[in-house]
Amino acid sequence: MVKTNIYKRIIEHIFFSHYEENVDSFRFDREEITNAANTLDINVPKNIGDLVSAFKSGRQTLPNSILSTAPKGKKWLIRNVSTATYQFFLSEAINVEPDPSLKIISIFDSTPDIVLNYIKSDEQALLAIIRYNRLIDTFLGMTCHTLQSHWRTQVTGIGQIEVDEIYVGTDSDGNGYIIPVQAKHGKEKLEYVQLEQDIKCCNQYYPDLICSPVGCQFIDNTIIAMFELNIENGHIVKKKEKHYRLTHKGSLYVENDTIIEK
User: Fold this and answer.
1) What is the CATH number of the domain that holds 29?
2) What is the pTM of this model?
């Protein structure tokens, strides 16, 4: 709670030192975080980069004083524009959330028992479960392989980023794909900024492959929502969504060519 209050006080100070009515974007740099903390007479965060990352990723929400300045249908987001420079900008207020009307698809849980015994309900756990159950293959309908987890790299015009997980895949026509995966848990939301930087990263390093971003989120401990995403006209587009329930062996049977859960 202390860190949350400090982060919000600092970002609020920075925002209103630049904000003017009818302005839809402005930049600030890393040094302003230290200056704001000193002006407010509070401790400078030990990890200055985490302050911006917390608001970019949705781990923390911007103060209401900032949110209230956005026009109807818009919201303020933060993105990197270089290694130590950031940008507040207005974006469409579109949230990627699970559709409660979708049917739930039951599949066998292939996660090893020893992993299930010690696994947590966080982002790392979600990525591990998806990997063990080959859910990227199932969801996209192609053969996929994990290329790298938590890939930190430099992207032109952004600076350093981290991709949660990245896969390569091949469809039935032999087309090659690069698949950045964004994982969220709890109250965290799939965010425009992370999706934008994942796409730019893949286009920079894998220009010969088709970029097909995927978002995933726990609905509860047994149901996973998966989204095929893209960015069109400056906002997130949900191309496909499916929900999977992981079940234990022996709890499914086939009736009239349909898999049914007991």
Assistant:
1) 3.90.1150
2) 0.80
